[in-house]
Amino acid sequence: LLDERRDNYLVALCPQQAGDWTRGAVGLACVELASGRFFAQVVPAAGLIDELARLRPAELLVPDVGAEAFSSLEGAEAASGASSEQTGSFLDRLRETLEAAIAPRPAHVFDAVMAERALCEHFGVASMAGFGFDAFDVSLCAAAAVLDYLKETQKTALAHVLKIVPRQTAGHCLIDQVALRSLEVERTMLDGSREGSLLASVDMTVNPMGARRLRSWLCFPLRDVGEIRSRQAAIGALREEPSRLRKLRDLVRDVGDVERITARLGVGRASPRDMVGLGRGLRRCGELASLAMASGDWGLGGGGGAVGDDVVAAESTTSNAESTLNAEPADMLSRLATSLGGHDELATFLETSLKEDAPPVVRDGGFIADGYDAELDRLRNVGREGHRWLAEYQAREAERTGIATLKIGYNSVFGYYIEITHQHRDKVPADYVRKQTIRNAERYITDELKRHETEVLTAADRAKETEIALFEKIRARALQELPRLQSMAEAVATLDVLAAFAELSRQRGYCRPDVVNGELRTESSKSAGGDGAGDAVLEIVDGRHPVLDVALGERFVPNDCRLASDGDHLLVITGPNMAGKSTYIRQVALLALLAQTGSYVPAKSMRWSPVDRIFARVGASDELARGRSTFMVEMVETARILHTATPWSLVILDEIGRGTSTYDGLALAWAITEYLAGCVGCRTLFATHYHELTELADQLSGVANFNVAVREELRPDGAGRDVVFLHRIVPGATDRSYGVHVAAMAGLPASVLRRSEAVLRELEQRLAGRSDGSGLVAEGVEESGQLLLFDGTEPLPDWWRELVDTIDGVDTDRTTPLDALSLLRRLQEVVRQGGP
After folding, report:
1. Does residue 787 sit in helix, strand or coil?
2. What pTM did the predictor assign?
3. What is the CA radius of gyration of the chain?
């Protein structure tokens, strides 16, 4: 019943201060019942929604104390520096953001004393310190609430929930809910579908476990250089051996969803078909282990080998990427192989104890293999050989009694009987017991026949009971291996993603990005010299958008990007509408995200320092139900970026300030750009139509201008120029947006386009000379000096608009002479009725 490509998370939340979700921290515990993964962490209140947006839980547990009057989450944003209105409740905000079912729970299940007792009892320990929790915090209170809810709803043991791990986010790049939506990482902005998202475009996994792991990797990219290199090394090893990669993917496909099978095993719901699938998967895992170990030199070394999402590799011992090329062979595949192998005994046991075509339910029987249990075989033989036994018994009794016409029959009242005609009544043996008299014969039974009847009639039921008892023992035997089975399932999921990335890079010509340590140099270290290798950098040559690269193929135009802390780290990108500015800035962010999962990227080359956060403010949206206009939403999201971005962050902004008046928007965009360039210093791409911002490149260090190249061509009839968008990002600024040309592409009436061109020329003439040279409107302009669009001009008459639109809509290549005469008559009527 679950989507096999998505995790199904249950999350519980517990604030440090009861009922207060705006200050301090919140304990978060998350379990994936279908796999048994269970983790807990303490999250700052301001980052709670972002964490939940990445997890996307299906159900959320919260304390019922004050649930109706929870403070709004905007309070948490305000505490972090953002200014926002206190509207709506926390629960409403969660429902809007997550689309999750929210279940208030009694406050006592979150109590620390009861929580510690419940957790220690479940895991059979005296203290939670053995799981890595230095102190009993609110995250463990939330974890106890999760267990309480599962026991109440599942009504069964949770044998597969074997441990709980403390989850740390320090090793991951943080992506907030706005960036997830703007970059369309797992869903599109238009209709919320998976198709068209980054996840759908790069998903070449062949196993449901790998598909779920891929989503987790994309929502929680790495920051650790050593772990990134380790994944790259494993992908590179598989990429260079196509035949090995193909065999490995075929085996991974045949393993099946072992993760969810083990979960059903843990709660006592695994079916015979599940266990057959488990045995088949274990056999394939043995072959996978051998295949993963088959290669020698795999390239890069690193501190990798992590199987689960929450395992963070050790720091790389070298900061020089070139020296790492000669390090020891990568060990991530070998570590995965260790978890994959060693299950042959259980695989053989399941294969010999269960039939290959076992049914999905226990009640029908017929799933225990022949030869596994002697008593079961005998019971089955009773049913199968009952007719042969009766024939032999009838022949034996006929010979013993000397009655050749003796026969054995059956009815529902008396069961099996021996029928002898009246003429042979004197030959009936003394051990025959008469049961019924009929017209021409007597019917008898014997002890031997009655025993056979009892055995035959009950054999099927006894066989089913025996099979059920045997199956419980088989499940118990597999349950003993549950920890190793879960480790194996995680290894298969990880191997599937690595192999999928390898296949993706082969099919689409992706390159291996060069990752360098992202440590910004201080002024003192810069003055001391050095080659700058430690500076934060993002260099892409011929980069392509991962989604559009698939949709457009060779028609997609690749572009370069260079951002560096010791050079240009903020690019102001200007150019026409529809030319590709938004695509370009999204593309850079997606390549950084993809690279930090360890994947190869669609580019000729890439060199970058891992980012700690990715911020994206793209597109327009409003929250009318919460009293927020489009511009208000834009400013709240921008404020959050300015307060939380660091020099290691990557920020992409698109058309900031366009939701208000021209001067207000321009002033805000100018100040925001100055702040990001001077105060934050992060790598930033700012796409804008405020051409005045291009002057910042002359005033601020680290700011550069780029624009989207355009070619203008004179129309064949000489009446104006056509515009060709080249979709190339080139150095320099532009002062035109070609909005009228885009409007023409959208199909606006010709009269509207002609009038807009006239108004545009008039506005450009009026604006000439009104600037003080800074790009902003000079001070001292009186209110009466505000430009009026139609000042001193008369609007176009309706008849003239109709005349122009009618002529412009004529297709001369398809107009017949008769149609032309009719059109000419219509134009005459328009002129005579409305003209001078």
Report:
1. coil
2. 0.78
3. 38
